[in-house]
Design goal:
The protein has six helices and six strands; from the N terminus they run βαααβββαβαβα. The chain is an alpha+beta fold. The strands form two sheets. It has a four-stranded antiparallel sheet with strand order 1-2-6-5.
């Protein structure tokens, strides 16, 4: 589904790494939690932490290890065509659209997903042995919700606040 998304100049500047291996998931969890501890304790401004409070998020990311599947999504700033370095266009937009297609397909299949974006995410390229032209865009956690999962009570803005009809 993601591979069918439109992209700038049809360069398809993405790569998806599907991770089922328990050892790899554990390495990702350890590295992500290290970044998250730094974020919550040192980097995040109080305003951001207050915005996150109703969601109940913190540096504990055990779901990264327990989920049946992780999908690391990488953006490619450039690619190689016939051994020549070629620039990709509208990379973030293209990868965002492909990721949206993927999330919709996952949910349509009856699964759930959670987007995870520790910053920085350089550890993903290292752990997953991706080439230098790729940069981690997003880590998608996929599976069925755990029986004891607590979904935060969130609301969505009404249509009138997010759109204008002329």
């Amino acid at each position: 589904s993601a591979g069918t998304a439109p992209s700038g100049a049809n360069k398809q500047p993405w790569h998806f790494v599907v991770i089922k291996d328990k050892i790899t998931k554990k390495k990702i969890r350890i590295a992500a939690e290290k970044e998250e501890v730094d974020f919550y304790k040192n980097k995040a401004p109080l305003e951001w932490l207050n915005a996150l409070k109703p969601l109940g998020t913190n540096e504990d990311k055990q779901f990264l290890e327990h989920a049946p599947l992780l999908i690391a999504i990488f953006e490619q700033k450039y690619s190689h065509e016939n051994n020549i370095k070629v620039k990709n266009y509208y990379v973030k937009e293209s990868v965002g659209i492909a990721t949206g297609f993927l999330i919709a397909a996952i949910h349509q299949a009856g699964l759930v997903s959670l987007t995870h974006t520790p910053s920085p995410m350089g550890f993903l390229r290292k752990i997953l042995k991706r080439p230098p032209n790729e940069r981690a865009y997003l880590l998608l956690v996929v599976g069925y919700p755990a029986g004891d999962v607590v979904v935060p009570k969130i609301t969505r803005k009404p249509l009138s606040q997010v759109s204008t009809f002329l």
